[in-house]
Write a structure and sequence with these properties.
Blueprint lengths: L1 H12 L3 H5 L2 H12 L15 H10 L6 H18 L6 H16 L9 E5 L6 E4 L3 E5 H4 L4 H16 L2 H11 L2 H7 L14 H13 L3 H17 L6 H11 L8 H6 L3 H12 L14 H6 L2
Helix pairs in contact: 3-6, 4-9, 5-11, 6-8, 8-12, 8-13, 10-11, 12-15, 13-15
């Protein structure tokens, strides 16, 4: 336990070895450079397949979507998110969230992914992930949680990525004919700068983030997320605390509408977590709450 707390202190301060090997501020700059539509095409080895090839890949077997293709699909889905929301301009906040997320991702089953975390300039209470290691949280969420709660949210989103939940959802839509219908509708980017984003990924991404993942995926991400957060040295009850906050939110509050509309009911998620956790992680709980504003002042 002492070792965990020591590692946690290093992680929160940005002093663990991996932070020196890959500077998070530089990684964020790389994210902006890569995702900004039209600035750089993907290498030939990772270029997204044409629409009919993507449909065939997703319909036949996800095993054919190797890691480079997964990362490229994620890059374009991340572009969908950034096409509707700006990144928050506070570099200190971006660096902190990126370091925090990167530390947690190193404890996951896929630490080798090019993980990048960012804060969207959005007052709503939301978090999103895309295949290949892209994770976004909104400013409105960050303002309403402490560090352990944010760690729980990031761990939950990381689990969606490591379990390939978004790719599985895309494959299900492809097998059901959803992709064919979306392509037939000729969904087009709404501005010239976004013209380089593949139309089929744009259409699928909008549909996926509007409808959300399946309940089974959310329950799995909750269960694995609390374990991952604990493995990274954080209070495992951070995520349940967030769910309690969502449970108390007014259903008609526009800041929570998207999250509540694309996830199972908070009480149902809490019940599932209580059954899964029992008292097995209680020994790792009870850590003092750390405000994110306090952590930022330390840097």
């Amino acid at each position: 336990m002492k070792k965990q707390l020591c590692v946690l202190a290093w992680a929160a301060a940005g002093l663990w070895p991996c932070a020196q090997a890959q500077d998070p501020a530089r990684a964020l700059g790389e994210l902006l450079r890569q995702i900004k539509p039209g600035t750089q095409s993907a290498p030939a080895t990772t270029r997204l397949p044409a629409a009919n090839e993507l449909l065939q890949l997703l319909s036949e077997s996800l095993e054919r979507v190797d890691q480079p293709k997964e990362i490229e699909i994620g890059r374009q889905l991340a572009a969908v998110l950034l096409g509707s929301k700006l990144l928050h301009r506070d570099l200190a906040l971006q660096t902190y969230v990126n370091r925090l997320g990167r530390w947690i991702s190193l404890q996951s089953s896929r630490p080798q992914l090019p993980w990048t975390f960012a804060v969207l300039d959005d007052p709503g209470f939301n978090a999103f992930a895309a295949p290949g290691g892209y994770v976004f949280v909104t400013q409105g969420l960050v303002q309403r949680v402490d560090e352990a709660e944010l760690a729980g949210i990031l761990a939950q989103e990381i689990t969606h990525v490591t379990a390939r939940h978004h790719l599985q959802a895309l494959a299900a839509k492809a097998r059901s004919g959803m992709l064919t219908r979306l392509l037939a509708a000729q969904v087009r980017p709404n501005n010239a700068a976004a013209a380089t984003i593949s139309a089929q990924v744009l259409a699928l991404g909008r549909d996926l983030y509007a409808s959300g993942l399946g309940q089974a995926d959310e329950f799995e991400a909750d269960r694995e997320g609390v374990t991952l957060a604990a493995r990274a040295g954080f209070d495992p009850y951070g995520l349940p605390s967030v769910l309690q906050q969502l449970r108390a939110a007014a259903p008609d509050n526009p800041l929570f509408t998207l999250t509540l509309g694309t996830h199972p009911p908070p009480q149902q998620r809490l019940d599932q977590l209580e059954a899964a956790m029992g008292s097995r992680l209680d020994a790792l709980s009870g850590q003092a709450s750390v405000a994110i504003a306090q952590r930022l002042r330390m840097h």
